[in-house]
Amino acid sequence: MSDIFDENRMMQALGRYLPEGEVIVAGIHGIGQALEVREIFGKCSFDGERLVPDEHGITIEVDRGKYASYDVYIGVTEHYLILAECEECRHLYDIRENPDTAGLLVRNLEACVLPEDVGNCFLLAEIQSCVIKKVWMGAFNCMITMKNGSRIKLQLPKRGGLGGGMPHHAEYREKIMEVLGSFD
After folding, report:
1. Average of pLDDT values for 75-86?
2. Following DSSP, what letter does each residue of 52-110 receive, concatenated?
């Protein structure tokens, strides 16, 4: 368990979802408390395991949910919020064809996407609100609501674990809270 409190491991995990041209400006270990995300993809098909680009394909919505606490790395770049699980977790998935997309961001696929890779990278511009509340032992809970209705509840602990593996935790936590707090 203590090996999750390692900045190098965290940066590698967050890097998996890092969009091209972006740089992580802050990252910490946190606790995911609830995840209800949806992404809508256009011009694609579902082959039973993954979404595949298809110029003549349809629009597909992927919903991914988790309702139990889990360890997660939380990172921000100039334009994105990135989440990467510290250890593999199970999620609930719902895949729907031709959903109502009125007023929602639809991303046309350029490469294959696995359902488990949905809900890890979020445009900051798509955040509708973020409510931050101080809780026990100096931690903060952040309830993030996206414009498409997705919701993410995270806890940002005061400390970055034992052993000194996350020496920039306090500094990075403040930066993340500053970014998320701008949506309050």
Report:
1. 97
2. EE-TT-EEEEEEEEE-S-EEEEEEE-SSEEEEEESS----EEEEEES---TTS-EEEPS
